[in-house]
Fold these 2 entries.
Entry 1:
Amino acid sequence: MAHIDPSRENWQRFKDLPRDTPIQMLNLIKLRALAEYPADHSDHAKGLSGAEAYAIYKEGFQRVVAQDGAAMIWHPPMDCVVIGPQGEWDEIFVMGYPDSATFLKMVKNEEYIRDVVPHRTAAVADSRLIRFSG
């Protein structure tokens, strides 16, 4: 079963946690071979790979959150998987946010919703997003 967006229960758990302390978000992303844009999107039928679409998404969301002090704090190159299946995740990174209110502000941001999220939706086949405090 693929996980692209949070379940209602998980989203509520996130919102119920303290909003005024720094958080980190671990992102595990499996990309589609070919991005799947809706027919009315300007990138439909351009033949973008999932990796190309996700690169557009990463640039966009980092731009949106940078003004609020959030940033990618860990994005290592993967050498190999030691335990687990090879190729399970294509992207692994950690975003740091001054607080969860900043993350919530991002997901409600009109530019993010309109111009950035469609690239994530087109690119991602499966994902995990795990919150850590600290």
Entry 2:
Amino acid sequence: MAIQRMDNVLIVVEDLDAVVAFFVELGMELEGRGPVEGRWVERVIGLDDVRQEVAMLRTPDGHGKVELAMFHRPAAISAAPKNAPTNTLGIRRIMFAVDDIEDVIARLRGHGAELVGELAQYEDIYRLCYVHGPEGIVVGLAEQLR
């Protein structure tokens, strides 16, 4: 049996509204938002007395999704500094292909985004950068030049 597709990536956040606004500005579409609680979710994630609000966003092509979860119970805990360096163990960023990287950077700055390093070009193929979004989320941006 083989994998059918990657369904989504989960990011646990403290300010769901701010992070949803950031990803919507990036170009993702809000698919749905609402409370999640009950024994079924407790069994799946291995926590008791769970109450959370979840937002599901999808890329415009419908193939990629980001799930955002804000825990009311139990309280979320921090695993590392919010602006941990790129060589910190674990998932470090989500990369998105974009049409106009400078326009995307400018729009995301309106939501507090800052470049991690700088906008750089890889040969004549891509322009790439990483940005810190809300809550230390790192988003990679790639504009294909060919």
